[in-house]
Amino acid sequence: MTEFIGFVKLKGGSGATTHVINFAKYQQKQGKNTLIIDTDYSTISATRRFFTNKELSDKIKPENEATSLFENNSNPTPLQVDERIWLIAGNMNLSNEEDRVKQGMGRRYLFFWAMKHMAEIQEKYDYVVFDPHNDNSMITQNVLLVADKLVIVADVDNDAMDLIPEVMKNINVIEKIEINPMTMESLVNAKIFVLGNKVKHVGRSHVQFKKDFEDLMKQHPDLFIGFVPDREMIHLTKIDNLSIFDLENQAKYQDASHRKFIKQVETIYQKICEA
Ligand SMILES: Nc1ncnc2c1ncn2[C@@H]1O[C@H](COP(=O)(O)OP(=O)(O)O)[C@@H](O)[C@H]1O
Ligand SMILES: [Mg+2]
C-alpha cells in the first residue's frame, strides 16, 4: 500500500523540506519509489532543489504542477527528478487559488484525486510525500486530510513545543468535520509524529530542548520519534542538492560521529515507515 506522508512544520526554516528530500533519498536507497508533492507556495523549496530558476520556467509545465491537483478531474503528470523520485512541482501562485478551492471541494481535492487514481498511484509509488506551507489554508488542510502519517518537524526554538498543540488542534477540527456519511467515521486518520530538528551540542536552549524532547520520548514514544542534530552534512542537501545518503560513502564522512548521525536519521525514517 502506498503511504501518504506529510512533513508539517510549525514555522519556516524548521527543516521540513530537508527531511522531505532526505526521506525520498533514503527510500531510493531502499529501492522504493517516492512522489514528492510540493504545496509550499511560499518558497517552493522542494521544487527548487531539483530545478534552477531558469529551469523552473523552461521545464515545468502547468500539467506538472500541484495547482492542477486543485482542479476538478485533473491528474498532474509528475516529473522524474532523480532515480526513483518524482515531483509534482510547486507554484508560488497556488495561494491565489484559495478562494476558488474554498468555494469548490474545499479540503477534499487531494483526497478525491488519491481515491480516483489510487490504482495508478499504488502501482508507481511506495510513498507520496507532501511538503506543505506552515499555515492552515485550505491547500494545507487538503494535505492533513489525505495523509496517512503526519510528521511535525520542530526545530529548537522556545516556541516550537508551544506550537505543536496548534497543529494538533487544526487536525482535530478537520477530524470532526470530515465524516464519511455512510459510516460516520472520520476521513482523517493520520498518525502523528514529532521530529525534533537542528539540535546543537552546546547552548542552554539546545541542551534544554534535547532534555525536554528526551523526556517526551520516554512519556510518549509513539508520538515523539526522535531528534536530528544540527549538522553541516544535512545542510548540504540545500547548498549542493545532495542528501546525506549521497555523501555517506565519501571518505570525509566515514568517522564515527558522521556514521552515528546518519544512523540516527535512518532510525527516525525507519520508525516513520514502520509505525
Ligand atoms: N538538522 C539540520 N542541521 C543543519 N541544518 C539543517 C538541518 N535541518 C535543516 N537545516 C537547514 O535549515 C534551513 C531550513 O531548512 P528547510 O528544510 O528549508 O526548512 P523548512 O522547509 O521547514 O522551511 C536550510 O538551510 C537547511 O539546510
Ligand atoms: Mg520548506
Automatic annotation (TrEMBL):
Lineage at the top is: Bacteria, Bacillati, Bacillota, Bacilli, Lactobacillales
Q: Which SUPFAM superfamilies match?
A: P-loop containing nucleoside triphosphate hydrolases
Q: Which PANTHER family does this entry report, sorted A to Z?
A: COBYRINIC ACID AC-DIAMIDE SYNTHASE, P-LOOP CONTAINING NUCLEOSIDE TRIPHOSPHATE HYDROLASE
Query: What region holds the AAA domain?
Result: 3-177
Organism of this sequence: Lactococcus hircilactis
- Domain of life where this protein originates: Bacteria
The name on file for this protein is AAA family ATPase
